[in-house]
Amino acid sequence: MKTIPMARRFVITILLTVLVSIVLFAPQAYAESYVAGQFGVTLPSIGNGLTNNELTGVFVPGSTISDQSLKTSGLYGAKLGHYFQAVPWLGLEAEAYSTTPHIKQQSVTFSGPSGPVGSIELSGVNLRVVTVAPLNLTLRYHKARLQPYIAVGPGISSPAYRTLLLL
User: Fold this and answer.
1) Which of 28, 97, 106, 114 is the most buried (most CB within 10 A)?
2) What is the model's pTM?
């Protein structure tokens, strides 16, 4: 079991070495197009998980289900962008990424308009969320090797796999 943490440490060390090398030895960039990969982690424990869950469909209006905790998960995706020759600090970018913040095994309580109705033990639900940001406006400081940037745009997020809870 110690091999998994060692492998992760090795991969992180290699990635950091590559990134530091790129920053230190890459020539100063001008206007350019780029394709990039991205990776990270989703931390639903920072937020509240799934909250304010109103039940619809066959349920009585005003029915709710208790808040549900989500698992921490990896995130991966890709970006495609372009910085303009005339204004090298301004660019456009499109991105898409995916994560799997599965719903943890937990007890959930169902409530109607008049109060709690009952509870069940939820065995957990697999969930994949895909987010697409079709057009981001990107601003960067382009006069140094390390180029901090900020990107702003709409994100379209939807569960890729929907799970039906059957009682």
Assistant:
1) 97
2) 0.61
